[in-house]
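Hi P.,

Sorry for the delay on this. The queue was packed all week, but I finally got your sequence through. Input first:
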Amino acid sequence: MSTTVNDLPYEILSKVLELAAELNTQSGSQYTYGLSQAPEPLQDVRMQKVVRGRVPPDTLRWNATEAIRRVRRQWHNWACEYALENLYITRWRGSERWMQSRSLDKLQTNPSSIAVYRDPYHSLRKTSQLFESNPKIASCVRRIIFDGYYGAETNAMIFNILRRCNNIDYLTIPWTALRYGNEDDWARLLGRNDEHRSISSLELLAVELKQSQIEKSANQIDKRLLLSSKINFGGLHRLKISGYSNFMPLADDDLIAISRSAVNLREIHITGTASVTIDGIRALAESSDKTLEIFEHSPLSRDGFEHSDPTSLLTQNKHLCPRIVRCPRLLNLSLSIPSLCETLFSSLDVKWSGEMQVRTSTICGKHPLSLKFVPEAQVEFFHILDQARELMASRNREGAELEIEIFVGNLIFEPRRMLVHGNFDMAIALSSGAWPAETTHSSKGPYGQTGLYGKDEGPYECVSEDFFRQGLARRYVSF
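Then the structure:
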């Protein structure tokens, strides 16, 4: 009896088609091309064909399955699920101009001054129309990213698309969706009905808007959805908020409202924002303390390296370190907190691993300037470094690799190697070159491994903790 590829079990057939699609992707076009900038007047410069950028992954997958979709219905359905699993919809940006030429082999032809116009919301409109006319295609989407659509008009189109995506699991959306969306749409996304299960991952992207966008009357809307009893984040496992906005930014009240129902979060990422204080971060951590596995808080977008945390006056007397230690499932940690104490590293029962960064400005219960002027606070800080070393050694004995870095002001402390990274030019000048006796070049900068930030912070060097304590005692350096 003859057997064809279509008689194979679906799992094997799916793997065969996946390998074929990957081979098609490798043989297809990986980049987009364009023409170099037009020559200036009175200059005889030939235009050249240049690489503009990579073809988006979702476009590559769609092109790679073009032939597969034409074979038969079963293959067509598989190809749609494969190609549309991850969808990236971005606003068109460009400055192309028309070129008056019938062929591209003679690039010395001067382009006209007429700019190429495309509807910047073309991708959004076409996707909305496609999903409206073909609901089965919309059901193939598992992850969708919207980038560049911040107004009330485009938010309406975004939710028109999301209403038809019944199987979506990962959603990346502008922060304005929490201002412009309606209760029913958000309740549906979060699984408060029988037709749709909750998304598991929500990313909110914030950017600074132009003044014309801010002043547009249609955008002056805030429906205060987070105050509604219909909005429940209990099915959410991952929450990420990134970026800073100058228009209706997400603040502590928003995070506190989310925390009332977000009791099952496994990952919390709050990065690049200056509109959230430790009040909102604490509320999220406390509500999901039993399930939290990854906790990241890095508000370093607008205020530079010395901005360790936009501290709220209401929480200066609150202690976050014990709360973090009591999260039983926590594995990875990167935090900016107002103050730090040995409690954070005192428990040897934690399951932390990987790279751990803690950015702070003082010792818990001490004045914000205590590390600069109070010797007792400085002694306590070095005891914290000893506690960190003991914790890393304990995790190593259990077979887990844990690397801790502590950031204070412009200094980076690396407890395992007993090194301090920083710019010590002023200390060298104050000591007339007598301190430090020995330095080595540091590859770190104010943001750790990412190097220097700005132009006035100079190259970083590293010294041993003992040398640093000597310089601290002689007042050559300070925190």
